[in-house]
Protein 1
Amino acid sequence: MELHQGDLDRAHADGQAPVRGGAFIDVQDLSLDFPLYHGGARSLKKTVLSSVTNRVGGQLGRSGGENDGPEKTRRVVVQALRHLNFQVKSGERLGIVGRNGAGKSSLLRVLGGIYEPVAGRIHVGGTINTLLDTNFGMNLDLTGRENITLRGRYVGLSASGIAALEEDVEAFAALGPFMELPVRLYSSGMVVRLGFGLATAIAPQVLLMDEWFMAGDSKFRDKAHARLETVVRGAEILVLTSHMPGVLQHWCTRLLWLESGHIVADGPVDEIMDRYNAGAPPAL
Amino acid sequence: MNVLPSASERLSRHDRTTTGLADEAADTRAALHPGAMASGQQGIAQELLIDARLGRKTRDKAAIADIRDGLALWRLGVSLGWLDIKLRYRGSALGPFWLTLSSAVMVASMGWLYAMLFHIVVRDYLPFLAVSLILWQAGIGGVAGEACDCFINAERTIRSMRMPFTVQVIRTVVRNVIVLGHNVIVPLAVFAIYGLWPGAHALLSLPGLALWLLDGAAACYFLGAICARFRDVPPIIGSLMQIAYYLTPVIWKPSQLGARGWWLPLNPFDPLLEVVRAPLLGTTPSLLIWGAALGYSAVFWLVSWRVFVRARPRIAFWV
Ligand SMILES: Nc1ncnc2c1ncn2[C@@H]1O[C@H](COP(=O)(O)OP(=O)(O)OP(=O)(O)O)[C@@H](O)[C@H]1O
Ligand SMILES: [Mg+2]
């Protein structure tokens, strides 16, 4: 299995691009922990000291208590995702529902390769674009134009590609002279126009999108809708988190219901939606 | 065939005309970096495979992939480094030459003072001091300081998109090269004033500078990761570098110590400084010095590599 995977990697590295239309997501036994650094855990001095005292304490206390694992007690984590298993095929539009803190955004970040899991395996085939951050990954101190150039370099565009990207985003965002000013000076609406134009100019095979992209004020939504729709249509796989039933029903073909890091249910939109709204426990 | 979204249709057509040489930097080797203009860039075969179940070998491979993909994105790293400098000096009339000016003032005043204290002729001492001080401040010391912030400063980017950490390393190194480039004017001016032009011999410092680039990158991986995890490390590094500054022949010459300087080879900064400084002052570093510089560097690379391999999957949680 692993060997086979390795061969696949090598084949790609040798320049045999995967055929478009072959996008997929394969998640196996995925778990994600956030380490929590409380108290002195951020300090090298205190960590070294406490590991020394723990060792001494452990030796002294050996005759007494037996259940104290000196190493383990120090590590505090939030278990964000637990043993997830699912596959997404090309053409599917997966919606993720769940209460606040269920782990939806964390799952998107893992699929985008931002957070690496502590256990399990994820395999995403195809180019990925993540629309997660409210600042669209822009540097607020740089001008709009500089941000566009950086994004172009990030996705590996040639000079002419970057020029085209600039032209495209400029036309959408319609910022005029503000293009040459630091993004920090923009109004919030201008930031969204630029960031949205930039993020959606790059059309991936696998699009990972957090809910708020759909949740802007309705006026902006109208304006951006067509553009977003083309990107979503162009993507082979969409993974979208949302709390809005309407959005999910419009965009998705399948729902994944997460609750405190576990998959509760996975299936057709209407069925899962009904159960989610009813708050019913899973049939299993 | 996939229907391309109209937003990028024009882009892809644009790009197709230039596919080939220009796109080679972003060829298939960039297999792990996400997001590409859906386009005729057939080169970018992309997939993401993270397997936490396999141990050390996959960790090594992932770290190698990080470096490889980061190098493929070197243009991005260079742009980021330039923009950092531009931002830092945006709104100041002198720009980065502000640094040159303050270095010049420092070299002049220290040269005068220490020549007096050490009873040396200014003409003998000032060129040495100018070269040493600039190499230390804008080189070794500067890199050590900035390496600590290498990943912390990129927190926003690291949390919002997948990007090889090597891009941040390139960015930090580029920034320091630019600063050093501006500061080099000071020793050059001193040489000009005293008519001590080192000539073509100065080119012998290029291998040393190349070694510095590698050491600087290693420092970024090493200190960047450690400082992201332990927030009290940057001040510790600051104090250590302060001590190193006094224990390394920067403001004093090794010859002043004479036989009492037996411990100098134990200080890794001494050979490292010497391989760059000596050619600029018209001498040639001995093979012993070069050997020591390479040896210390090799150990440092090894340690940095191990630290980076261990830390890489965790950095996103630390910053
Ligand atoms: N950077 C972080 N550090 C520590 N814990 C985190 C971090 N990010 C998320 N968490 C925790 O992980 C869990 C899942 O968070 P996540 O943001 O994925 O939830 P969500 O489903 O997107 O919620 P919402 O609907 O509010 O957006 C939460 O318990 C949260 O506290
Ligand atoms: Mg969320």
Protein 2
Amino acid sequence: MTKKSKAKDMPLGGVIPKGGNAHDYETGGWRKFQPVLDSDKCTSCLICWVMCPDSSIMVEDGKMVGFDMEHCKGCGICAVECPDKIKAITMIDQEESKEGGCE
Amino acid sequence: MADNTASKTKNSALTGNSAMALAMKQIDPDVCAVYPITPSTTVIEEFSSYVADGAVETEFVTVESEHSAMSACIGASAAGGRAMTATSSQGLALMWEMLYIASGMRLPIIMTTVNRALAAPINIHCDHSDSMGARDSGWIQLYSETVQEAYDNLFQAVKIAEDERVLLPVMVCLDGFITSHAIEVLSLITDDEAKDFVGDYTAKHPLLDTDNPASMGALALPDTYMDFKHVQSDAIAASKEVVIEVGKEFGKRFGREYGLIDTYQLEDADVAIVILNSAAGTTRVAIDELRAKGLKVGLLKPRLFRPFPHAEMVEALKGVKAVCVLDRADSFSGFGGPLFNEVRSALYDMEDRPKIMGRIYGLGGKDYTTENAVAIYEALFDVVKTGKIDTLNDYMGS
Ligand code: SF4
Ligand code: SF4
């Protein structure tokens, strides 16, 4: 009748006994809107990289190359912070984007 | 240590609060975060003198509220330190939110709770509504009849809380003014004996261990939350064994052994009173008077209230015909006080269970006298005679 509690194998009191494991927790599923990059416009100023609260701006060799969609929550901060003269990021409805292409 | 060797004990006349302050000094916690409130104030006032005199190493943190006092204790305990505090009444009520966090995070914080009534109306005197209100917060609760017991309980509380089979916070309750401000001769243990008994505390995942970073107080969603609570519930239930072990070890070292419950003249008693804290002492005097007249009356005093010593109660009350449970707090359920309800529920499965009634007494410091106790015993004999309880629950003397 009594199922063995799962928490018996978990750290006491809910402590997370290791650091640097936030990456293991995927927050991409929370997303309603999705950022889309226009790489023709982007100057790789990396303001979005600084401002993204989820470290989801991917940068290679100093160039903005896209988004980490496993962690991007779709808050839209990057789109707002991308300088007015550039505006290289647009937020689109996640569902529409699926209908449009992914499925 | 040799059995039953009384240590180099020193007798001293102290108030309950002075004894608690002294015990805290002898334990020398890493952190003490406090906000004063009557009647627990002098515990902290005297302890702060020890801090000022350099008699302890404790980091003494004066905060802006009891909520902050408990929060700071939680932080200190999570950091890996031994944290202590003291409070009463509204102070305990203000700690509410944090009490559950301390127990849920499995932090062995130690608190002296000097029992006092809750407002409104405002009242500074003794009853147990404060600690009874915290009875479901996941803290282990030890109650103390005398200054000696309160002093002894504090050392044991540290050992119980920090035992790796337990890792839960413990509060030691004593009656406001009645015990906290009354001077009593008690036997003290030495500083070295105290240090040796409580030992050192080594936290498993101290936040200050920067080489092994850990996160505490994380979110647990429906897939895990209930499992954490299940483990916590099993841990507090199992802590009874540790309370017994620690009580025995204390007895072995210092000659005063403690169990989960204490009884007086209960073995052959026909009728019994169940009561917590200082009023048990008054009841003992009434028992002596009635026993002198040949009446078989007895007492059961729970020392441990959380976890509830249900099996021990059943064992102790076997053969008793009628019981009155006296509560110094109301649960406003329209069905008696908390102790009444738990004792009554514990006895439900007994083959030959006694008749049980409940009386609320002593709220807001109202006196509980030997005459009160005698009247209860007389009422219990009536119940035995008639086989009937007229009034299941009532307020006594008002
Ligand atoms: S802020 Fe705009 S321009 Fe700058 S890197 Fe990001 S997307 Fe490119
Ligand atoms: S939408 Fe928000 S989370 Fe996603 S990349 Fe932009 S700033 Fe980061």
